[in-house]
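Membrane associated rhomboid family serine protease
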Amino acid sequence: MLILPLHRAPTGANFPWVTLALILANAFVFLGLQQRDEARQEQALDHYVQHGLARWEFPAYRDWLAQHPDDRRSGLFEQMTSDEGDPRWAAAVLQSDEAFVAALHDGTVIDAGAAGIDDWREARAGFDRLWDRSFTERWKLRQSEIAPTRIAGSMFLHSSIGHLLGNMLFLALLGLLVEGALGHGLFLVVYLLGGVGAALASLAWHWGQQGSLVGASGAIASLMGAYCVLWGTRKVRFFWWFFVVFDYVKAPALVLLPAWLGWEVLQLLFVHDSNVAFEAHAGGIVTGAALAFAVRRLGWERREFLDEDTIADTANADDALLAQAQAHIGKLEIPAARALLEPLATRRPDDLAVRVALYRCARYEPGMPRLDDAVRAVLALPLRTTPELREQKAVYDDYAKAGAGRRLPLAPAQQLVLVRRWPAIGAGASAAELLAALAARAPATPGLSAAMLQVARDLQARREDGDARALLASIVAAWPGSGDADKANVLLAEA
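Structure:
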């Protein structure tokens, strides 16, 4: 069964740098440090054969297997020691039996008084030195042995290129989602502790047995558990594949926890001799889920990242409601449009499109009783982009026609903020007209003369000299002898 969460793309803001670093570290270890292990082990096995270690150890190993039955190893060993076999690989089978190798070093399987024992010891010591040059041998996690350095090191080892690529695919997909939810530092802590939890689960399951563990899958499994708990009941999109059936669906992330964990437990109980550490996967999932639960209790998760999908879904739903309301307005179904728009305005108070739509509702209502409030809501928005400014100006122009004889329902200070933006969208003449009217009606408005001077300069820069001169003359007439009037006279003289 394959389940892949695929509901967030990397961006500059959420790029998983620690995940990338972990992928590069795993790739470097496998491609740079483990690649020579095969040559190192072959060199050690050649030494084994050339120095006659088989003469001493093969008979001892047959006796050992008779006392410690292991059908798989016995079959391989006998096959490799036959006339058609390769004694080097027989030595490799022997060397993989860690209990026998330990007994060799303890001196309990070869008679310490045998003739030539010193030669054997010297040859075996040379073989051990060559064998231990293998990077994988030095760092793999051995079952029934608690070694902190091996627990940490084994997380970065892989047995094949396919093993590496499969793990790195899952790390990339889950790392993006979990690192974004935790932040870089906390993500690394959860990843490493999850790998430790997975390794301890594997040791507990296999305690008393022989074997070893390599791979990042336990740590990656902890990200699976953390992902489920961090997203919780939020609905996420994921791809699933079970034999020949597959689909792309949306469901609460938490439902993936029993699916992932149950699948690993089932395989652990019923799939044998697969060389896959299902117990480590299950332990990693449980560890990651527990760590994520602690993170949530402490409030350390990044809610803004976790809620992005929900916010986007809400925005999409609101956009659909806005489009529906605009369709109602087009059909002059004003009550139906207003019923959709008023809740939208509460959720999106600074949305220009919603306010413009409400203005259209007020514009087409009989008697236009709400027109002033609606235009005020549009014109008071502090906009920045040119398209928005032009749409706002269009509403102002429409109101000037529809509400002939009405005074603009904005305080003088708000009118100053509004007109300062108009020259940038080619509406300098309208700005000059509104400012001149304001100067005639409310010359004491704070900042009025400065605003007029700024707009006049903007008009001059745009070669709209006639409107600029009219505005400068209004400044001189309204505030004779003032500093702004002096500046206006200078600009008039230069024009």
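The chain has four domains: 2-32+157-306, 35-139, 326-410, 411-495.
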